[in-house]
Structure formats: structure tokens, C-alpha cells
Amino acid sequence: MYFLLxxxxxxxxxxxxxxxxxxxxxxxxxxxxxxxxxxxxVWELVPxxxxxxxxxxxxxxxxxLSWRYPAVEGLTGAVFWLLGRRFPLGGxxxxxxxxxxxxxxxxxxxxxxxxxxxxxxxxxxxxWVVLRAAVPFIEFERAMLGAALAFALMLIIxxxxxxxxxFGDVKLAALLGLYLGPAxxxxxxxxxxxxxxxxxxxxxxxxxxxxxxxxxxxxxxxxGTFFTxxxxxxxxxxxxxxxxM
Length: 245
Known about the structure:
- This protein folds into two domains: 1-86, no CATH class; 88-245, no CATH class.
- It has nine helices and no strands.
- The protein has helices spanning 2-19, 49-53, 68-86, 93-113, 118-134, 140-161, 167-180, 182-205, 218-243.
């Protein structure tokens, strides 16, 4: 059920990823082919399935369709499925599903445009207020401490980086702190920097990026957060066991 829900949400996220950076509405007009402008029918919008049935091409003009569409849908479905297995219905599950959806959109927008839209961060903050009122999944004090701590740490890095990191990453870290709390958000930031550094080194080894080329941090913050939501306690237990705490 969660996988199917994720596929549906992922289909909508494709619209957000494509339209939001252009300043267009994400609810109107209806989806259409980017090449011929033909409005897509219901069967052409079935997540993942329609892409492969059409062999990655528009049914009307036969123009190629981006692999991003099924990738976003499949990724969202997989993340929703994992979270649904990890958490029971109630508690942190719905807030984490909302956060995961936002992070998928942020990931692909940051990859394409090297910025994180304030509108998505505002939606995440507003959703946190509503969700916490409905399901107090995190104590208010822990959430505020997590947001403040993440913001402060990322602000220091931002100032030291001198343009090597966008301020959107600082604001995103604060949002993550709201949802995760102090200890988990620190773990999420640490994991994101580790994975980001490893990816940067690999890209340089493969000569796909140079030392001075920018690498968006948003996708790695999202990845670190996914790891923390799914396996945070196990990672912390493993780490404390290694250092003998």
C-alpha cells in the first residue's frame, strides 16, 4: 500500500520538480507532452507503468521521455515502502512520509538548478505545525533544539565555505531538525557530509567533476536523513559500541 501511495505521490512530485523552478502552478494546467504540447490522458499518467508501455516515448509525437519520471516515482515508492515497514501507522510515520516526499523534490531540483526553493521549505514547516498538532510525534523542546542546533552548525559551515555552499542548505538543515530532533539531525548531517565527500572524490576520480566544480548538498542531506529515519538508532548503537560508550 505504501509503495503504491509513493508511486502516486512521486507522479505529483515530477510536476513539482518540473514546474516550481519555472514559477508555474503545480496544480494547473493538466500535464502535457513537453514536445508536442498534447494533454496527457489518464492512462499516460499511470506511474512507472505508462513509461514502459510507451517505451519511453510520447504516444502522440514519439518524442523521447526523460528517465527522471519513472525514477522519481520509483524512488518515492521505495522510500515510502521502507518507511511503512519501519514505523507503525501513527506516531512519526506520516510526518516522515511528508518529509521524505519533500526531500525527493528538493533532491532533483537541487541537482538541476543548484538551489532549494523556499516554497518547499515553507510547506515543510507548515506541515510540521499541522502534523504535530494532530500527532505529537516529537516533543516541542526537542524539535526547537534540533532546528536551532542544525541551523547553527550549518551556518558556521556556510560562513567558512565562503560561497561553497548555498544558504538554502542551512535552512533545510533547520527544517530537518524540526522533524528529527537534536541527536538524529546531527547524525543525518554527519552522514550527508560523509556520503557527499565520498561522492565528490568518486566523481573527481572518474573525471566527471573538477576540484572547483560545485556539488549540490541537498541530495546528500536528503540521503543522510533517509538513513537516519530508517536506521538511525542502529547506526548510533553500532557507533557507540565501536568507541566503547
